[in-house]
Amino acid sequence: MLRFFLSTAALFGVLAVILGAFGTHGLKPKLTQDQLQTFETGIRYHFYHALALLFLAFISTKLQSSFIDYTGYFWIAGIILFSGSIYLLATKELLGIGHWTWPGPVTPIGGTLLIIGWLLLLIGAITGNKL
After folding, report:
1. pLDDT-based confidence at 2, cuts 50/70/90?
2. For the chain, how big is the Rg over CA atoms in Å?
3. Domains of the chain, residue spans
4. What is the pLDDT of residue 56?
5. CA angle at 24 for the pair 21 and 27, rounded to the nearest 5°
6. How many other CB atoms are there within 10 angstroms of residue 59's CB atom?
7. What is the arithmetic mean of pLDDT over 71-96?
8. What mean pLDDT comes out for the span 50-74?
9. Mind giving me the DSSP string for 89-126?
């Protein structure tokens, strides 16, 4: 799991920095203040969970638990669904997809996956075996 979570964390970290810079420099003149704040919320949770996934990679080398592994998978899915849908919601007029309604309901699903990931980490921390 170390290599998979570490490489995924690095990829998500790179994407968070790129999207954050793009939001600040490229989208700022094109989005309303509310849209920009929405986009920045996506970046914030994206980056928080990329860092959490990085730490999880190292935790997985010290603590053996399938809950720890599932934590990473839930966070990965949560980042994609939560932050991804927020990026779409914030930029949908700019992208010409203003008629899309499905990103709105996807956001809380992604958020729920992030929460479940944290709960799985808690369970793994309590029940896991040291390696």
Report:
1. confident
2. 16
3. 2-130
4. 96
5. 105
6. 21
7. 96
8. 93
9. HHHHHHHT-TT--THHHHHHHHHHHHHHHHHHHHHHHH
Cα separation of 47 and 116, whole Å?
18
Pair of tokens at residue 87: 């990026």
Measured from the Cβ of residue 34, the count of other Cβ atoms closer than 10 Å reads 9
End-to-end C-alpha distance for the chain, whole angstroms: 14
What gap in Å lies between CA 65 and CA 121, rounded to an integer?
9
With tokens 């729920």, the residue in question is 112
Q: Which tokens belong to 96?
A: 């010409």
Residue carrying structure tokens 């986009």? 39
Per-residue confidence (pLDDT) for residue 75, from 0 to 100:
98
For every residue of 15-82, DSSP letters joined together read HHHHHHHIIIIIITTTS-HHHHHHHHHHHHHHHHHHHHHHHHHHHTTTEE-HHHHHHHHHHHHHIIII
Three-class secondary structure of residue 85 per DSSP: helix
Q: Give the sign of the dihedral formed by CA 89, CA 84, CA 35, CA 15.
A: negative
Tell me the C-alpha distance between 112 and 17, whole Å: 24
